[in-house]
Known about the structure:
It is a single chain. By secondary structure, the chain is an alpha+beta fold. Helices cover 32% and strands 26% of the residues. The protein folds into two domains: 2-205 and 256-263, START domain (Alpha-D-Glucose-1,6-Bisphosphate, Chain A, domain 4), CATH 3.30.530; 272-310. The protein has six helices and eleven strands. Strands 1, 2, 3, 4, 5, 6, 7, 8, 9, 10 and 11 form an eleven-stranded mixed beta sheet that branches. α3 runs antiparallel to α6. It is elongated and about 85 Å long. The N and C termini lie far apart (67 Å).
Amino acid sequence: MKAQFLEMADSTNLSQDNPWVLVASLANPSIEVYKLQNTDFCVKVIAELNCTMETAFDLLSDITRRVEWDDLCEESGIIEVIDNATKIQFMRTKGVWPASPRDTLVLAHVERLPDGRYLNVAQSVEHPDCPPRDAENIVRMEAKISGQVVGPTLDNQPGMCRVVQVADGDLKGWIPKSVIGFIATKSVPNSFKKLDTILKVLEQKTVSTVLALAEGTADVVAQRKDEKSSEIEVDGDVAVGSVTDLPTPSAAAATSVTMVRRSVPKPRASLLSRIRTILDWWSPYMVTILFILKMHRLIKAKKQLEYFYG
Length: 310
């Protein structure tokens, strides 16, 4: 699972026949979205975000907070904790008309890579506590491989990090190509822009809480934090630790369902932004409707000519 994800995340092209094709890009922050050619849905995002690696990784790897930045996420949660580095997680997406909502159930694992980057990787599994919800018209999609790898920017800019997210999946059921295009070119880059807005105002971490728990070092780091915070200023030099937000790990629960329904309040959008959103949403269908109307007129004109000259 890890090797497969890193091959996709780090490659420029998997093969000559299957290149990554740029389908969307934003500046400030730099966000690029690529689609793997000759696939139904395999998308890679490369983003340079205004925060430390640790701040970005802890938010990205927390499935219960995905509703805060992913515009398509309707609800998410943890189904079972396997250990401090591995969980079974659930996420449901909103339906993008005319397609039905989707959900997915994955085994997610976090670890520190030998090169210093942080990895969060996931793959579809089955679990008796989270069966498919066909009766609710929710399609269970398959995550062949997905996740993020977080590291420094290529030019090592201080206070910034580079996130590569890959989502290779089988969306199952019927879904128009226009919806897939909307997700890749509009929803995904806008979600990462929202993510950057959230991350840059958070307290910037220098130690990852998630990895400290996964590696079993949270006790040691938390103790060091307490010791540092109790030290006083001596001869004008302040001895204060830079480690923040590290809880003491508890034993992993055998099974815990913590479904989180979307509850983040949405800011009031201006009239102009609402109109732009509606146009973005409907543009693929407007083009199709205009094409059908044009063909109808051409057929009608052809029949009239045949009638007159017939």
